[in-house]
Specification:
Among the domains are: 88 residues; 69 residues. Helix content is 56%, strand content 11%. It has 8 helices and 6 strands, in the order αββββββααααααα.
Length: 228
């Protein structure tokens, strides 16, 4: 046997082994019991042809993502409902990162459920979970994560919009503070034993608080803007 022929035979074995590992058979017997196997059941003898055994080859690779589908105004990746983002509220785009984090964590944690041998192990110990459901869930999660990635451009625009808004509010706050300090001056000294100092302090306090409501409102708006 030549070296080239030996290599060809080895590659053929590897390819056939990989193809076999990707298959999973759902077997339903006459009593309705469901089992899963990497291998199809052996043919029944001629006298047992009356058996109602049902065998279905299942696609459990889970490698290609599901497709986004629209139902009315909502979008779905399989059973996963995608978030609806209002372009008028750019803060909502920043929440997509939280969705992606949750879906990615589930996707990484559920990877072993998409392994044929792990599913066979579950079936052997009567852990009743249809392996095709695990594969479908994986495809749905991949679709959802990909959908978030496709919103990257809108997320960046939202970040820029919120950053500009925050800077404009900060400029307005600085302008009002400057106007207040110019009109009211610095906080005066107050001594309870000197009535004249109390009068000056009261005048300053009244002037100072004329600006506080507007400043509090602007500062609250800034605190509500989350720029990531």
């Amino acid at each position: 046997m030549t070296a080239r022929l030996a290599i060809f035979i080895c590659l053929s074995v590897l390819v056939s082994g990989s193809a076999q590992a990707a298959k999973l058979y759902k077997i339903v017997d006459e009593n309705g019991s469901v089992t899963y196997s990497q291998f199809p059941p052996q043919p029944k003898p001629q006298q047992d042809q009356s058996s109602t055994l049902k065998v279905a080859e299942m696609n459990v690779d889970g490698e290609s993502a599901s497709q986004v589908r629209a139902v009315g105004k909502k979008q779905y990746c399989g059973e996963i409902e995608l978030p609806v983002v209002n372009p008028k509220n750019p803060e909502e785009y920043l929440e997509l990162g939280e969705y992606k984090y949750t879906w990615t964590r589930e996707l990484e944690g559920d990877t072993d459920l998409n392994d044929v041998r792990f599913r066979l192990h579950m079936n052997r110990y009567n852990l009743n979970r249809d392996p095709s459901e695990a594969g479908q869930r994986k495809r749905d999660l991949q679709c959802a994560v990909q959908w978030v990635d496709n919103q990257k451009g809108d997320v960046q625009k939202a970040q820029t919009t919120l950053k500009n808004e925050s800077e404009q509010l900060q400029q307005e706050i600085s302008r009002i503070q400057s106007q207040r300090d110019k009109r009211c001056g610095s906080q005066p000294y107050r001594d309870p034993n000197q009535p004249g100092t109390q009068i000056l302090w009261d005048r300053w306090s009244e002037c100072y608080h004329e600006y506080q409501d507007e400043l509090y409102e602007l500062e609250y708006k800034v605190s509500q803007i989350r720029v990531k």
